[in-house]
Every structure is written in C-alpha cells, then in structure tokens.
Amino acid sequence: MGKFAKRKEGKVVGKDAQDRPGWKGPGHVKKDGPAAKSKKEKMTEPKSEETEPEPTVPASLQQTLLNIFRDAFPELVASNDLQRVLQDVKGALYERDFNRAFGTDEYLEAYSLRWSPSRALGYTTMLVDIQEYLAPHLGLVEQSQDSADPTASKTVALHVICFGGGAAEVVAFGGFQKFLEDSISQKPKDTGLEDAVAKISITQQSKIKLYLVDSAAWQHVATKLNEGLSSLPILKYANSAAKEANRALLPAGEITTTFQKENVLDMSLPQVMEMIGGELKLLTLLFTLNELYTASIGKTTAFLLNLTLASKPGTLLLVADSPGSYSETTVGTEAKKYPMKFLMDHTLLAKEKSEAGDEDASWEKLVSDDSRWFRLPENLRYPIPLENMRYQIHLYRRV
C-alpha cells in the first residue's frame, strides 16, 4: 500500500501562510493590558480588505462531499502509484504544461482526488453566500404572494455553464442543491421569515443542469462524480442501523452534467450564442479567468465581449480567482501588469449605446470582494491532506 493509501482515514490538513497580515490563529485570545488598543483607536482603524465570513455550510455536508471524491476513485486511492502520479501532475502544473497535467484520465483523476475537493467545498460556500441572487434562477420555486393556493408556484431549472469547469464544479453544485433542500426542510413553517430562501420551496421537478466547457477532457471524471451524487456512500465496518440509514446525497436526475471539450479563447460569437441560448443562465469562471488573461488578454477580452452579446438581461456571471491576480500586456513599447479585476471591470462595466443613443453599462456588479478565506473544518477526514483556499469573488448581472 502507498503512503497515502495507508493514511486513508487521516485528518485533513489545512495550511495557510504563517505571515498572513492580520491572522491571529484559531487559538488567539485578546489580552488586556498596556498593549491593548482603546475603543476609540479601534473605531478609527481602517477596515481590512480581507474578509472571512462565518462558516455557512455544515461540516457534515462538507464531509459527505469529500466522501464522494474518495469513493469515485477507489482504485487510485489504494494504488501504490498515487504519490508518484500526484508528483507528476504537480510538476506539470508548476511548469504550466497543462496539456501534460490534464492529458490522461489517470492524471485527471489524480488532480480531482487531490486538488478539486477543497475547491469544491469552497465553491459550495460561494454559492451559498450568493444564494439570494440565484433564487430566481434555481430549480426552486418562489411561492406566489397573490395566489389563494399557498402551494401555487412556477418551477424554473437552474442552467449553469462553467467555462473552465471540471470536477470541483460538479460536486460543488451538488452540495449547493443539498444545502438548499436541507435548509428549507428544516425551517419552521410559521416563522414568517423574510429572507429569499424562506420564500422558496423544493419541488420534485427541481433540477440543476450543469454544462462544463474546458480544453481538457473532463467527461470521464465528470460522469463518475455526477453518478456519485446520487449513489449510496461506501460504508466500511458499518452496523445494520448505519446501513439502513445510508442515503445518497441527491435523488438521481436532480443534477445533469454535460461536457464539451472546447478552448473558449477559440470560440466565435456564433458558437458562444448557440451555447448560451435564449434561457437565463448562471455563467461561471472559477479560477479560470486569470489563466485566460495570461494566455491572451486580447482573446480573453473578445471572449468576455462575446459573453456579453450572447447573454440576455438577468443572466448572472460568477468570477472567482486567486487574490491579487495580475496579467501582463504590452502598451506601446512597455510591458505593464494589470490586476485581473481591472481588466474584467474595464470590459464588463463598459458603457454601450442603445438605439435611442443612451449609454448603459453592459453588466452591473452585485457582489465584489477582493479577498476571502475558505477554511476547512478541523474534524474533516480525507485520505490526502488538503489546503484552505483564499480567493476573490465577483458577481455580475447582465442589464
């Protein structure tokens, strides 16, 4: 058995930079004394640009999502070659040789097993954090305020196109759907809660239609993980009561995943328009946009403009990436670096003229945060150590 296989019940290890500004650690206790700041000093102290929201996704659900990754690739988990394969993939990623890193099913499985789980948990948290904006798009229904029948509703499936999407997105949207179902089923019926989620209810027709687009061949991995969302978890050494209570994360068919192998930078406007179609969509670029800018700022700008032209009003665009991402381009004779956020806003928030001659922005920004942390709960278990995730997040709506 390989090193990782022997530790398959090992604890998740979440590592952060030790010198992260403002980080006091989980055991930090405020001490009174001469060094303590006064209340007045604290009030005038500038707010940190980095935010760390309270955990919103239960650790039990996060553990279930990790188990789906583990159970999807049992042969690789138990393989003596796992460590070698992971090192090969890591080396290819370091050299930015993406054709090699994602060139075989074995390497894609290894990447999914090692790097996708923490991303999936982080993405689930992102979706939960922006759920109020997703509610009108979801495979959920908002109860009519005017109808005499409290169950009267209209079902709308959530159509999602993930550009650069792969393993993490499949499990993340499964986790998001499960979170919503659990949240709604656990809410008291007579509290009159006013938030967006309290106004919606799940129906049997509730679905998420996921469409992945990437230059790597994720079909094999995406199919395995999509099946894992509706498969019974693998139980070892479980008693009869545990086996009796064993349930899949979601009923079969609640999430459908379709994959298309395509380099988005080579897509024409007609191709983008055909892909997006006439329905409202959630479009995502999760840890993808800065890589596109790095490949070509010109082509990436053209791609974003094509998304703008192809999207109908109300379409949402979710972008997440590493904080402080910069891309270099040549202006005149000098090479300059620009923040990803600047390049993105310059394109998406540009004014466009209407037929009446008025100028309106193409998109409006609903959420923007330059730095957030997703931290793994300490009690999670997984056969391979995973890391916490720091990211920037931006949500736009087509106007």
UniProtKB/TrEMBL annotation:
<feature type="compositionally biased region" description="Basic and acidic residues">
    <location>
        <begin position="41"/>
        <end position="50"/>
    </location>
</feature>
<dbReference type="InterPro" id="IPR021463">
    <property type="entry name" value="Methyltransf_34"/>
</dbReference>
<protein>
    <recommendedName>
        <fullName>25S rRNA (Uridine(2843)-N(3))-methyltransferase</fullName>
    </recommendedName>
</protein>
<feature type="region of interest" description="Disordered">
    <location>
        <begin position="1"/>
        <end position="59"/>
    </location>
</feature>
<dbReference type="Pfam" id="PF11312">
    <property type="entry name" value="Methyltransf_34"/>
</dbReference>
<feature type="compositionally biased region" description="Basic and acidic residues">
    <location>
        <begin position="10"/>
        <end position="22"/>
    </location>
</feature>
